Every structure is written in C-alpha cells, then in structure tokens.
Amino acid sequence: MKIGVLTSSRADYGIYLPLLDKLKNDAFFDLEIIAFGTHLSKFNGYTLNEIENDNYPKIHTISTLISNDDEQAIATSYALTAMKFADFWDKNQYDIVFCLGDRFEMSAAVQAGIPFGVKFAHIHGGETTLGAIDNIYRHQISIASKLHFSSSTIYSDKIKALTGSDKNIFTVGALSLDEMRNFIPIDKDTFYNKFSIKEDDFALITFHPETIAIKENCLYAEEMKIALEEISKEINLIITMPNADTQGTEYRKKLEELKSEKPDKILLLENFGKINYFSAMYYAKILIGNTSSGIIEAASFGKYVINVGKRQEGRAQSRNVLNAIFNADDIIEKTKIMLKKGNFSCENIYYREGAADKIIKTIKEL
C-alpha cells in the first residue's frame, strides 16, 4: 500500500513520529514523506534536516512559504502552496495520504488534492481553537478527508456533524502521546549541557500569535514580555520560538528584546525536536503560553500549565490547566499560583494507549 504523509512544520512532524516509525518498518507499506512549509525555511530552523536524518525511503520537498508573515503574505503562501500541490498531485498518486492538524499550509495542500480524488486521512480533526484562524483550516481539512482519526470521542462527534456522516471516523487518542509509558527523557546532565541550561528550575514557554486578533497582537506581545520579565525573577525561562503565523514576528521581536535584557535568565530556541522538547517538558517546573502541547501533552508529564489567551479556547482541558487572559498581571498571578504546586497526578483526557497501532490496523482492514 502506497502511503504519503504531509508534514509542513516541526510541530506536526513530532506528532507523526510514532506512526511514521511503524509505517517505515512495516513491509506492507510503501512510505513517502511530503515535506513543505516551514521545514524548508532557514528562518524557522530548516527542520528538513531532522526528517532526512530519520532515513525514510523517499522524501519529496516542496518550497511553499513566503518569508513575511502579514495577512497578504499568509494568503499568498496559501495560494502558492495550492498551486504547487496541483502539480504534485497530478504527478503522484497514493492509496492514502495522511494529513494532520490545522495549519494553513496543510489546508492548502489538501484543498489542491480534492479535484484529483486524493484519499486523505486526517489526524486530530474535530478540535476547536477559537483564538486562531487554524480552526477554519482544520474543519476544511476534515471535510476534504475520507478517513478520520480523532483524539477524543467529543471530537469524533464534531467530525460527524461537519461531514454529515458517521463512516470512517475512529477515536484513537492523541498520537503524540503514543508509547508514553515507555518514554525515557534524555539524561539530565546530558540534556542540560547540550543546551547550556543552568541547574536551577525553569519554566518552558511557547507563545504564538492569536491569528483572529490581528489588531491586538502587538499589545499581547508586549504584555507577554512584561509578564515573562517579572516571572524570570523567580525562575529561569526556556522559550521555543513562534510558528510562521500571521504577526509571529511581533512576538519574536519582544522575545529577542527580553533575551538581550536578561541573557542569564532567558534561553531562546528555534527548534527543539520532539525528544528534546519532551525532555524539556519532563524537567520543567511548569509550562506557560498558548500552544497545544500544554493542553494535549503536558498532563502526561505531570505538569501544570498556564494557558494564556484564546488561541486554544474550545479545546477540552485536563485538570492541570489554569487559564489566564493576555494581561501581564493575570499571567504573573496565575504563574505564582502554579509554582506553589507540585506535580500533577490526575489523568490526561487525551491519552489512549496504542494510537499508532490502531491507525495502522484500521487502514489495513479498510
């Protein structure tokens, strides 16, 4: 069976890994990776290297991203991605093509495949993120897909409502959490030395723009900086940089200013990679920001999370999450509350064992 896997960013590639490892090592499948988006952007860490190091039998590369991140650049990148994938789908056929999540580049690649009858299998459909335009792209991808692998029954129900059908919808849990019981973090000394991390406690930080709040993002970026500057007086900060979203550079500029002002307290990283990022989450005291990893993955590491703003609003949350508005005082106050807590010990609502195995078993049976 010939399988294509669309990956447009460091985020979706890390989520795919448990599935990719099994597909690559199963003789039933002829696996091809289709890499595009920020993977080919040197500004965003050129994460194509990470994919190439994993030794897949075939990797397609498609350059689709405009360097700017204003509204016109995002729309132009969407159009360019669709145009290039029109040519790609004309020349390449697959039995199934996996797509994941909600990025605008992913949506464009999928939309271009509709006239060609590409059979898409969507992972993480049905979810809701009211603070990001990704919410629209995710639903577009779901409607264009023939197979659906959701992280929760509530999201499976949402897919049924979106597609008007209950066929080929499977609740498998969050793929990124697959085999979590066997996860072993990088040795602490090795990890700390690799990234020049001090032995003190640290908070793991990731902020992205709220892409439905274009006019407010400059203010939000400033509030973020003020909050993190104050929080850094209590704990060191390891910060992963924003995705290629509308106005992401506003957040980058504030983070770089913060680094220059407090170099001993702040570490900025463009791309951790999944094992390094999971190890950072394992050793972190808390998480702060508005990324999906705080909602979906952090509970499995026993971590409390300050979820800021509306980017993740609408996603079901485990009991480890405390929500804050995009206001420095509120972020600081909520962080102080969470720093007093120990480890989170309740269930992660997104965890189901064997997600990759369930996906593979399903497509073989179909």
Automatic annotation (TrEMBL):
GO term, biological process aspect, one: UDP-N-acetylglucosamine metabolic process
Annotated SUPFAM superfamilies: UDP-Glycosyltransferase/glycogen phosphorylase
UDP-N-acetylglucosamine 2-epimerase domain span: 22-364
A molecular function GO annotation: hydrolase activity, hydrolyzing O-glycosyl compounds
Superkingdom classification of source: Bacteria
Pfam entry (one): Epimerase_2
Name of protein: GDP/UDP-N,N'-diacetylbacillosamine 2-epimerase (Hydrolysing)
Organism: Halpernia humi
